[in-house]
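Continuing from yesterday's entry. The apo prediction looked reasonable, so today I'm repeating it with magnesium ion included to see how the binding region is handled. Same sequence as before; SMILES copied from the compound registry.
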Amino acid sequence: MKEHTHDHGPLAGAEEIVRISCIRHTYEDGTSVHLCGLDFLAHTGARIAVLGPNGAGKTTMLFHILGLLRSQEGEVKVFGVSPADEWPSIRRRIGVVLQNVDEQLLAPTVIDDVAFSPRQYGLSEPEALERAHRALGLLGIEQLADRVPHGLSGGEKRKVALAGALVMDPELLVLDEPFEGLDPTSRTALLGLMGTLATERGMTIVMSTHDIDSVPEFADYAYVLAPGGRIALSGTPEELFASADVLAEGNIEPPILAELFARLKERDASAPSPALSVTQAVEALTAWKGCPEPR
Ligand SMILES: Nc1ncnc2c1ncn2[C@@H]1O[C@H](COP(=O)(O)OP(=O)(O)O)[C@@H](O)[C@H]1O
Ligand SMILES: [Mg+2]
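Holo prediction written out below.
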């Protein structure tokens, strides 16, 4: 587990895009979420996962990044400003997919929904449509352009919302449980797209998820929220998933590969340390068992 430092996180030294320091939000019914403990940091081009059980405070944290909630204490900075106070000055740089996508799909057709922001920002009609079609293409859903959002499946809605989030080429993408409702093929495609956006366009991506197996594939750094919102742990996926103690402390189920390697180690101390991708696992197990190289 990391000490409370100000230089942790991936790409430390790159521009700081998001910082959250010890904030609190108390909902009307008195439920208090205290996002304190470690500072949350996201630097340019980082892919950050936010983990934690239901109700820990992941959505509350993302809402603070989006200026939808105002902290009663502590500090939230996005692109160097307070999002709750100065949202208009930063909103064009930020793309969002909410956990409840129905809240953000409001236009009569998919293409109108995706073209909403470019029209809003005063782009010409041909340019707005061009951008919207390009965003649909990025998600592989051009065929949905004239559909009514309300009638789409959960996974399709999520892709439309993502197209809308990407249409203005944001620098920061905030995704709340983006894999919910996606079939395995769409999930894999989304993981690939997120990787491309981060590596080729330098997009910073902050994602909350329950999909633990996606974390080693997606994230270069992860934060774990404990119930009540405490930012309890942070580290690279390798750091977080290598230790059963850390997993227990964060109350997170290990990725299935990490569990496989832990069980092998129980049986045979010479077993290799956990691999987090199938490719790494094949290499580690092949070397361990002295299997011949593949032809
Ligand atoms: N609108 C709300 N009114 C009252 N309590 C809320 C509201 N939204 C969230 N909460 C509470 O705040 C805590 C954190 O919720 P949330 O941020 O949605 O967690 P997560 O996204 O990790 O599941 C939970 O205890 C939840 O019940
Ligand atoms: Mg949530």
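Comparison notes:
- The pocket of magnesium ion (ligand 2) is lined by residues 58-59, 99, 176 (CB under 6 Å).
- Residues 232 and 249 are 8 Å apart (CA to CA).
Will overlay with the apo model tomorrow.
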